[in-house]
Amino acid sequence: xxxxxxxxxxxxxxxxxxxxxxxxxxxxxxxxxxxxxxxxxxxxxxxxxxxxxxxxxxxxxxxxxxxxxxxxxxxxxxxxxxxxxxxxxxxxxxxxxxxxxxxxxxxxxxxxxxxxxxxxxxxxxxxxxxxxxxxxxxxxxxxxxxxxxxxxxxxxxxxxxxxxxxxxxxxxxxxxxxxxxxxxxxxxxxxxxxxxxxxxxxxxxxxxxxxxxxxxxxxxxxxxxxxxxxxxxxxxxxxxxxxxxxxxxxxxxxxxxxxxxxxxxxxxxxxxxxxxxxxxxxxxxxxxxxxxxxxxxxxxxxxxxxxxxxxxxxxxxxxxxxxxxxxxxxxxxxxxxxxxxxxxxxxxxxxxxxxxxxxxxxxxxxxxxxxxxxxxxxxxxxxxxxxxxxxxxxxxxxxxxxxxxxxxxxxxxxxxxxxxxxxxxxxxxxxxxxxxxxxxxxxxxxxxxxxxxxxxxxxxxxxxxxxxxxxxxxxxxxxxxxxxxxxxxxxxxxx
Amino acid sequence: xxxxxxxxxxxxxxxxxxxxxxxxxxxxxxxxxxxxxxxxxxxxxxxxxxxxxxxxxxxxxxxxxxxxxxxxxxxxxxxxxxxxxxxxxxxxxxxxxxxxxxxxxxxxxxxxxxxxxxxxxxxxxxxxxxxxxxxxxxxxxxxxxxxxxxxxxxxxxxxxxx
Lengths: 495, 162
What we know:
By secondary structure, chain A is mainly α. Chain A is built from 23 helices and no strands. The interface between A and B is large, with 57 and 65 residues.
């Protein structure tokens, strides 16, 4: 049996299909509830996927996130409150359309072009990942060192308008990654004599804390009055979609390309892709004056962008083990738990698993259309679910989920501290995404750094002499110093 | 609660310094120039440098007249309302209670109290608080203990474990 046939068998097992349908409903629900994000959906899924075979585990995450990024549009449109940060860019626009009586057009555009963007991102994943993997087979520790450093650098500069605070966040993440025995000398670092810390701080409790518990704390102190749902009836969401597709083909393509690229850059995910796409759409539009007044063009473009970013983020995650966004940061942890360690050898040793991932993405984006249509139908009921009941239940779920990974109460403590820390840091303008990347990539960065230093034997030129390593080094340094250099240049030109 | 950047900077400077001193005690690997201290040492130095820069930025922000970030500490609006302070403390407190009590009292009791406290502070209708807390706790217990085989502790209910 060929690898593709095996992949089909893996994906179309009844159990796997059942998991995908359940994960879809879960993703649609979580995305539609303001305050629950797609990353949180992923973090909460991990304790459950822990008990599944690899392909259904990945299937659950792929489908749930795709659905959540789409359904985040629904409360944006009906309540002027984005369901996930990835919909925030065009929430005002969608709400303005609702007030003009065009809610079904805004929701339909969100649904249909989300699916198209998602399929485009998948296409790029299918084409780009294997060739990148073949290229990456020749990488040594020098290339990996620069690649990780470049990834972390991008994460700092992409996720924050204040790179200094992003950098602090990254360093804290790297420091957390140092905890435990996994270092060149297997010396227990920063364990304070605690045997539970020998193995390092658990990635999953950290993530659940940072992405779920912090949101619940934010809910607990939210002084805003509850939002009202628009009471206008919704018509057929698919009416006029063909018209939009033929009117804005360039916008759909541009949004999908930009989204995939931003997704593939480490650290930046669907939310940043969506903001950037909306801005690009406005800049190049023939009627920019209509933006903000309930104009569908920006929704078409950034709706495609945020879903294509999801697939784009998997490219570096699968090929190099470098997450493209915070969702894939969690996915990498799951891949390791399932013995599907990311890296180029994943493509040569177990191609059927990779093909299965491609199929999962295609199916998820296709079933999004009927399930999303149904979700829009029942959205007013979903939005009426009382959040004061939901939030405590989610937090108890977080506690049990953190406990379930290693069956130790210590992990619950890690979760709680991570949650409070993430809340405090975000309140003070420190972005959290770089910290997560630091935790995920710290071990890899140190390992490749140390083996490179040993290989180089004191000669630091060795870090730059291999052609690919040199190019990556130049790119990294350019991202670091170009902004400073340009500012200097501008100051000189001004003076 | 928002602290001025200078306060954050000072804290990070301190953290960096403590880590730098601490890693000096890590063993060296004979015959190699890199040991377990090198990488955390670099990270700590980075934190200290960033801390220093934040101190400068924070002080500059304080000197700027009419800057909203000028105070050493700026409190969010919820800090002035007792209800929200209590909600904040209880949200964290129930987790501390869970960590300390779950092995002795068992998951079902602790989970029920955990949910009931949060339902109460988030304003769930009074008659629903206890029934909802019990039903949800039993549901989560069933899903994780029975279906996923997670050994949630029974505590004082050990005698009637099902």
